[in-house]
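Intended use. Records like the one below are meant for learning the mapping from a protein sequence to its folded structure. Do not use them to infer anything beyond what is encoded.
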Amino acid sequence: MAAIDRADPIIMGHILVGHRDLHDLVAAARAAFHAAGVSATGTAADVHERLVTLRDHLHSHFAEEESGGHLEESVSRMPRLNGAVKAVLAEHPGLLMELDALILRLARPDIPQTAWEQATRDFEAFARHLMAHERSENAVVQEGYNEDLGLTD
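Structure written out for the chain above:
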């Protein structure tokens, strides 16, 4: 069992695995965008499929966070984190809407080159937003599990 002033390695490991899965899905979508940019035949559907998979996973990931879990536990351990947790959770709808808009734009098989280039830039912007969100979430959870409560010498 972890000391009260250290992060529980099992909990932090679980969080990091979930975030690694998201990173892997973002990397797969990025690779599909790259492949489609190099050879636009038959790859737009691959990009769309990767984005839908990412969206499904992200929706489940957010639902898990919103139904309790590590963020809620962080607040119960450190009530002063309530505002930070609310801010992290408030980002979920916007991230999903950002990804949904991209998926909708790429549902067509005949995407003009300029629209494709814009979609690629928009995906990179989404990926940056998502990674910043995950970093914020990690920071809140780490603070909730790492803070020295002054209960040990």
